[in-house]
Design a protein that fits this description.
heterodimer; A: about 400 residues; Porin; 16-stranded antiparallel β-barrel; 2 helices; about 55% strand; globular; B: about 140 residues; alpha/beta; D-Maltodextrin-Binding Protein, domain 2; 5-stranded mixed β-sheet; two-stranded antiparallel sheet
Chain lengths: ~400, ~140
């Protein structure tokens, strides 16, 4: 699917959204047999302008509108315990995505009771505060989630798995409640994602697909304090890939026996205020064949702290500080070993299904090209500047 | 003195609470038996609880208005925007459906009366034809 088709799909969904009820809980539905099928969709369009560096493979120093994405889903509650559904997703972010249509999720969900249920299919992965909702720009105050923890270009590394989940919620009486999810499955290769793009940036070429599978769990404690949630997640993945590099006459097999992602997070939502924070650590062990370098374990860390305040039904203001260190064994003061981002945002809800966001970013550092995140050589062929200032405007429609 | 202040504060709290509850009647289809706790109501209207006493239940919302605002404030603890976002997060991850919503008490009552397991809310003065009023403990 090309960019223009993504835009056409978005225009069609926008027309449908405008034609449906303007109720806050608008829905489109139809009946198949005796079962109601609900249809929902979203389309987002962004514009980014930066100084210093080009960002996220877009030509942002000249201003870029190459930031379009959208989703469409169908779902049906077949019985009181069984639910099925699927969602298609498409995005074009600079050189990433290219408007390709993909199955975002598609699964059957059988809920035995509130304490236990199972899902099987392609499922969004519960990891941290926003991993499974990171594409749902309409849910968040921000035009860009804190990139130190939720990099837009590396979304596909953790976004979903094809496998199964067990989940449930345990009441803890006066101590609140505990939600849990335990899962395992295959993590699909994204041939148009930032992980491949970053390695190709350094002259490496992939042979075949990246085989990746993982297991993990997520726990969230809803405290007896109104609006407070605290949680911990872990994803342990394993990857295999084959690449060619210019200096090596034979292909290089890269074995990643463990890539462990941990997240510790908390959020307080009370009346008009929302405060959130998350700490993330990614420890990746790598082994090469032939052994052109010794086995290594690289640990990256990131975190953010954010706050937002809703002034009224139409206006919300917010700010966050986000940090990422690609290699904690090196100095975090080096511009090539950190990305620090201060962001301020205003979200305007024009009505219940259309919003606009205006956001400023003050970014220091550009990370490490060996583990690229946001800043790529191809987009910045003359080298990186130590600072980036960026304006992001993003609008979206949901129904 | 401390005890008097505590009693006064308790009196103020008790005086304030019924003001919201009196504006709202929680109603259900006649197949829903028993009364609900406030925690049950909250869980149902967050899509986290789908049965009561073995009976499958579904929430029904008012789309806007003072009754809707009073119900959310009293029982759910979320604003309309926050509740809308909550259900959108369920819908767009495949983990739930958007609840039905209606613009008037009459439409809510009509739907609840004709739908097994439906639980909704209407204004304090609404005539409840064909539905039962639930006592929220």
């Amino acid at each position: 699917m090309t960019i223009s088709r993504t835009a056409c799909l978005g225009a069609a969904m926008a027309a449908l959204a405008l034609a449906t009820s303007t109720s806050a809980f608008a829905q489109s539905s139809f009946t198949v047999g005796s079962k109601e099928v609900q249809a929902h969709g979203s389309i987002q369009q962004g514009f980014v302008f930066s100084t210093g560096n080009n960002f996220l493979t877009m030509n942002t120093r000249d201003g870029s509108a190459a930031m379009t994405d959208g989703a469409f889903n169908l779902g049906s509650q077949l019985s009181s315990k069984l639910r099925v559904g699927a969602q298609l997703y498409s995005r074009n972010i600079g050189d990433l995505g290219n408007g390709a249509l993909q199955i975002d999720w598609a699964f059957a969900d059988y809920k035995v009771n509130s304490k236990f249920g199972v899902r099987a299919g392609k499922v969004k992965t519960a990891l941290g505060l926003y991993n499974d909702t990171q594409d749902m720009e309409f849910l968040h105050t921000w035009a860009l989630l804190p990139q130190g923890v939720y990099p837009l270009d590396l979304r596909s590394v953790t976004i979903a798995h094809i496998g199964a989940d067990a989940y449930g919620k345990l009441a803890l009486n006066t101590a609140g409640s505990l939600q849990y999810t335990v899962y395992g499955g295959v993590i699909q290769d994204d041939t148009k994602g930032g992980y491949r793009y970053g390695l190709e940036d350094q002259g490496m070429h992939f042979q075949g697909t990246i085989a990746s599978r993982g297991v993990g769990f997520d726990t969230r404690w809803s405290a007896p304090i109104e609006g407070l949630t605290v949680g911990y997640s872990m994803l342990q993945a394993k990857k295999d890939l084959d690449i060619t590099i210019p200096s090596l006459p034979v292909p290089l097999h890269v074995d990643v026996p463990t890539a462990r992602v941990q997240a510790l997070f908390g959020e307080l939502q009370r009346d008009k205020i929302r405060i959130a924070a998350e700490w993330r650590q990614e420890a990746t062990k790598t082994s090469l064949t032939p052994a052109i370098a010794p086995d290594s374990t690289i640990t990256a860390r990131g975190w953010f702290a954010s706050g937002s305040y809703r002034l009224n039904d139409h206006l919300e203001l917010g700010a966050y500080h986000s940090r990422h260190v690609p290699d904690t064994s090196l100095s975090a003061n080096d511009d090539t070993n950190h990305i620090r981002d201060n962001a301020i945002a205003a979200r305007v809800d024009l009505n219940s299904f259309w919003h606009v966001k205006v956001e400023g970013h003050f970014i220091d550092g550009n990370g490490n090209i060996s583990y690229a995140r946001g800043f790529y050589l191809r987009s910045n062929p003359t080298g990186f500047e130590p600072e980036t200032r960026m304006l992001v405007i993003r609008t979206g429609i949901t129904f | 003195m401390k005890r008097i202040v505590s009693m006064l504060l308790l009196g103020v709290a008790l005086a304030a609470a019924p003001a919201f509850a009196a504006d709202v009647q929680v109603i259900a289809n006649t197949n829903v038996s028993g009364d609900l706790s406030a925690a049950d109501v909250k869980e149902i209207f967050l899509g986290a609880k789908d049965s009561v006493g073995g009976t499958a239940v579904v929430p029904v919302l008012a789309s806007a208005g003072p009754t809707h605002e009073a119900f959310l404030k009293t029982y759910v603890g979320k604003s309309d925007q926050a509740l809308r976002n909550h259900f959108k997060s369920l819908v767009f991850t495949g983990k739930g459906s958007m609840p039905k919503s209606f613009a008037s008490d009459a439409e809510v009552i009509k739907y609840v009366a004709s739908t097994k397991g439906a639980i909704g809310y209407v204004s304090g003065g609404a005539e409840l034809a064909g539905v039962k009023k639930l006592q929220v403990k």
